[in-house]
Amino acid sequence: MIAEAALIALWLAFALALLQLTLAGFGLAGGKPELLASVRPVAVAQGVLVGIAFALLIALFLRSDMSVALVVTNSHSMKPWLYKFAGTWGNHEGSMLLWVTVMGVAGAAVALFERALRRDTHMATLGGQAAISLGFYAFLLFSSNPFARVDPPAPDGQGLNPLLQDPGLAFHPPTLYLGYVGLSVAFSFAIGALLTRRVDAAFARAMRPWVLAAWVLLTLGITAGSYWAYYELGWGGWWFWDPVENASLMPWLAATALLHSVTVLATRDSLRAWTVMLAVIAFSMSMVGTFLVRSGILTSVHAFAVDPERGTFILVLLGFYIGGALALFGWRVGAVREGAPFELVSRETMLVVNNLLLSVILGLVLIGTLYPLMTEAFGHKVSVGAPYFDRIAGPVALILMLVMAAGPLTRWRRDKLGLVARRLLVPGAIALLVAVVLATVAWGRIGVLPFLGLTVALSVGAASVAPLWKRNLRRTPLFTWGMVIAHLGCAVSLAGMACDSAFTVEKLAAVRVGDTVQAGDWKLRLLQISPIAGDNWTALQADMEAVRGGGRAVTLHPQSRFFASPATATTEAALLTRWNGQLYVVLGQEAEDGRWQLRIWWKPFVTLIWLGGVMIALGGALALVGRERRGWLLKWRGRVLA
Questions:
Q1: Is the pLDDT confidence value at 308 over 80?
Q2: Is the pLDDT at 538 greater than 80, yes or no?
Q3: What are the angstrom distances between the C-alpha of 440 and each of 276, 435, 436, 444, 450?
Q4: 68: closest CA among 162, 152, 181?
Q5: Most buried of 41, 71, 200, 465, CB within 10 angstroms?
Q6: Is residue 335 over pLDDT 80?
Q7: What beta strand segments (E) does 98-240 contain?
């Protein structure tokens, strides 16, 4: 009965989305913004119903209900409860239901809490959100039903992909989806503003918190996903430029540009057309990512194995929504009045350059991701890997970092080039000093990009905290702290990337029990190999002793695991984290002569990559809280004075 109740709730949510769109359309066509009072409760009810459907799917997984096809193919009664719970979205149908649920709940939140928009724009925004939801409801109900039954019920399930049986599954996909779908809200805001010709500062102030929240969640999701892949896949890297990894990066790049653009529009009433276009592009990239993951055209550990018919369905949705939005933009862009002017030397100009560079990187990543697919369609297989992305996008990213350093040190509207240069003296001196030191101690041992990366990272770090100079820190607005921490986080991540690329030591060895191997400053000795068993797996575990210099020995336990359902072998890397880096050890296969294969990396300061990601998200969260608190205080003071 649970599956039937969930399916009924999903159908009702679909019907309410259709009603929501119809009411909003009649209200706009008839010039009756008072119909917003009817649209709001419908949007809330839709969010509640789809939330119920998703909660019931979780219950089916936790109960191991083997009469539901999705549970049979993606779960097992002997799995730990965490993987039953997270396994709800560790598959195509469940993850799409999560997508639609977040979209419905986001629409309900816009209906309940958004009060800054004009009534007609608010109604158009809710109509746009309903229109997007309708396509995905149809996709679920007609192509990817998560509540399909099997008769008779299966004796047990086939199990979850072992690579997904990790606590990261409980955090990484939901945060990414919250970010993706948050961009759908920005898209709906842009559609609503175009339909009602209200692209102005008030519209931007209303949209900004939604964009900022989506960006924070995307940042957290990408950071968590990078670390998860780093320790789970056992290859020692933190980013592979896998097409599905790129599918999450591209919306983040567009959302970052949108965040800066909407801030300019909200505070200085400039970049109106830019802001609307970037809102369309950001959601377009999340749709492109959805297509890549679910179309069946990619082979990736991240991709869902889905038949091409479903991919065609998503491609049609992508063409309809994005094509329609671009057509609307072309039709109404003439009605978008030019915003407030600004001089060539100004913070607005810096943000425009920032957006252009982000767009260039986005274009380069998109081309590198789609080009192999296009050539394969014509019978030619081409591989585009890390060398392309590093050499093409890397230099542009470094220029972007330099512009990011200069932006906060430039005044709004108008500034003088000499004054900006004077404010950049300290970061410039730091860059020069770092370059001289690196050239002295490491010339010829590190590549050009890592060399430039470290130089830029340390100078950008200094420039990031410059807005706090000579300020009363207690009275500094929270959103200013957020900007400083986020920009500093970018510098920290860049420093970690550069150090990992420049100074990583890798050692491949074949050893017997009792042998010692050297990797950088570390000496590792294989003590024993022993079989162990987990909740739903067995493993061979190596007990190893690691010593650095004359320090105390530390025990490591890399494993080679085997899962019976489905039958899969995986590696579990052993990580030893120190303040200045991470020791990474992977156990391989046993050779015929009794030696065991080991892969060992010493990765100096690699953890700065993820520390920086967390700082970026924290900065965004502080900016969100600061902006919202300031707006609430201004409204409260206005009411008191009135």
A1: no
A2: yes
A3: 48, 9, 6, 10, 15
A4: 152
A5: 71
A6: no
A7: none
